[in-house]
Amino acid sequence: MSPKLSSEVRLEGVGKRYGEVWAVREVSLTILPGEFFTLLGPSGCGKTTLLRMVAGFARPDAGRILLDGQPIDPVPPWKRDVGLVFQHYALWPHLTVHENVAFGLRERKLPRAEIADRVRAALSQVGLEGFDARRPSQLSGGQQQRVALARTLAVQPRLLLLDEPLSNLDAQLRAQMRLELARLQRDLAITTIYVTHDQAEALSLSNRVAVLQGGSVVQEGTPEDIYLRPHSRFVAEFVGAANLLPVQVVEVRETGVLVEAVAGTRLPVPTDPTRWRPGSRALLCLRPEALRLEEAALGRGTGFLATVAARVFEGDRHIYEVKVGEGTHLRVELPALGEGRIFRLGDRIRVEFSAEGAVLLPEP
Ligand SMILES: Nc1ncnc2c1ncn2[C@@H]1O[C@H](COP(=O)(O)OP(=O)(O)O)[C@@H](O)[C@H]1O
Ligand SMILES: [Mg+2]
Q1: Staple partner for 283: which of 16, 134, 155, 361, CB 3.0–4.6 Å?
Q2: Taking the CA of residue 75 as centre, how many other CA atoms within 13 Å lie in the half-sphere pointing to its CB?
Q3: Which atom from ligand 1 is nearest to the alpha carbon of 16?
Q4: CA-215 nearest atom, ligand 1
Q5: pLDDT tens-digit series, residues 3-36
């Protein structure tokens, strides 16, 4: 199936109001042709509302949306050439797989032979060759979701919109479908806007991610930007596990700052020095996998003296909880196959981190 030229989507100051409440506010984004772009955020942050506006099922109350440079807000959904897949895939239960996938093509009155070709191609793209005659009740949840995807791909939309399409599947299937979706999207090179509250999905699938909070975009960037260089506490905590330590800036240097953390420990942190002044309060964000443990007597580098408070073995890694000073706990994740030793409850240790793994965040 040859996809049409994929499209660019531009949102300019888009807002949507329900009564007095703005569910989406001032959202400006440009999604490039062929890009896999994800809207990530907790339930209720406005993801579905945004997607419905792009699909044409809701009109913005502020701003506008452009598809390939053309304002589309006056264009009804069925004329937008946009494919939408929901969490609830809503297949027709009384129709076969073939008939479900052909549905939109018959509505478009395409010739019979072309419909047959397109259905075959779409089913093959989602790995469901030979399933034509089955009914939805004879398929697993994952297969039903693939049929929903095939139904959308068969009409060859210039833009694919996916609203939490994997959230009804169990964890293992979700991980597998994630890989398949990534492959399919790369093969088709179709511009895709993906909505999810699942950070692992967002990070693994996307070219770029916009994190939403309360209807606004709070950070936009590559998965690496979002995970390694969060701009705020909200993003740091939403996109993965984060240790957040209250610290105070004691000295501003050329390429970073010196902070004082719990129990008087002083640590150099690389950061834009123009953003901080001595005395500023901040949060030091340390990802659990960016930390290392050493015996207290051996450790020398930057770090905290601590005590092992708990340890859990998860097969691929050990997860430690260590206590620093009075009542501050850090989560540390170490690969199980690393050469480091295993520590026991109560061991005195030093928690070390590499400077690149540390991010200084403004205290909200
Ligand atoms: N039709 C509607 N009428 C009133 N409020 C709505 C409607 N749709 C969504 N909302 C509200 O707008 C906010 C954003 O909803 P939604 O876009 O569904 O969030 P998400 O998809 O991120 O979970 C929520 O507070 C929700 O209650
Ligand atoms: Mg939603």
Answers
A1: 361
A2: 15
A3: 12
A4: 14
A5: 456 899 999 999 999 999 999 999 999 999 999 9
